[in-house]
Design brief:
The chain is mainly alpha-helical. It has helices at 17-31, 46-59, 63-74, 96-106.
Length: 114
């Protein structure tokens, strides 16, 4: 199946480029949730970068989550409740009883698979 340029695209050297650009733009907007904004912050001082990264590592949270907290606090606003699982990353505690229960749940009952 040949990729066709839309009406008005006359440069044969761009064949298919328009479709690729549309796909990229669409993917970008699909990735951005409605009502959320994305920033690119340049020239972050090394001391600020280091402090945020240390705080993220200490709290076992993403750098993005720590930076959002810092921006929210500095802007003196209340952030909407986030519904992600960042707080649970790295919090698993080994428990032999849980491990046994999970092993039992993963056991395949051969009679059910006949």
């Amino acid at each position: 199946m040949a990729i066709r340029d839309p009406p008005g695209v006359a440069n044969p050297g761009l064949r298919g480029s328009f479709c690729l650009a549309c796909a990229c733009i669409h993917a970008y907007y699909v990735g951005m949730r409605r009502g959320e904004h994305q920033y690119t912050i340049r020239n972050v001082p090394a001391a600020v970068d280091q402090a945020l990264r240390k705080k993220a590592a200490r709290s076992r949270r993403s750098l993005n989550a720590v930076a959002l907290d810092a921006l929210t606090k500095a802007a003196n606003v209340t952030a909407d409740a986030r519904h992600d699982l960042d707080a649970f990353f790295g919090s698993w505690v080994a428990d032999p009883a849980v491990d046994r229960a999970l092993r039992e749940q993963r056991r395949i009952d051969e009679d059910l698979w006949k």
